[in-house]
Amino acid sequence: MPIEFLTEEQKNQYGCFNGEPNDTQLVRYFHIDDTALTLINKRRGDYNRLGFALQLTTVRFLGTFLPDRTDVPINVLNFIAQQVDTGTDNLKQYMSRKVTRYSHSTEIQSFYGYHEFNNAYWGGRPSGFFTTQVNTNTCFAMALLCFNFHNNIEVPASP
After folding, report:
1. pTM of the model
2. Three-class SS of residue 84?
3. What is the DSSP string of 113-144?
4. DSSP H or E stretch at residue 154
5. DSSP states of 29-64 as a string?
6. Res 40: pLDDT
7. Which of 90, 96, 107 is CA-nearest to residue 52?
8. DSSP 8-state class, residue 15
9. Of 144, 140, 134, 155, the residue nearest 7 (C-alpha)
């Protein structure tokens, strides 16, 4: 019989922001270097540059893309907007074109070498295996998460 070690609260907090990142986290995960800025500046429109930058830095921090790519803490939004040299007023416009958001995600994955956990690159193993192991085996879960992080593998969006 499986023994679940994650509480419902922990499961609900997985793959999303749980409060605002601190200053150290902002600098480490949300800093945009020249290479990233060049990639970001290929986008047309301030809202596309800001949305792309948010996706790029969020996947770096969380290890997955958010379902609502703009659902980020205000300190992250302001930190990114300042680096991209744009306002935040028209960010909701970024969510209006699903194709754009997903093409941006694909481009980020390709450029930085990220792979989805359950894609063909890894033999098409279903993410359900990961979920089962996370709920039953602490050592396996920690080892797998470390492996994924070091190999640029996105973890499933929710357990």
Report:
1. 0.71
2. helix
3. T-EETTSGGGTT--HHHHHHHHHH-HHHHHHH
4. strand 153-154
5. HH---HHHHHHHTTSSSHHHHHHHHHHHHHHHHHSS
6. 95
7. 107
8. T
9. 134
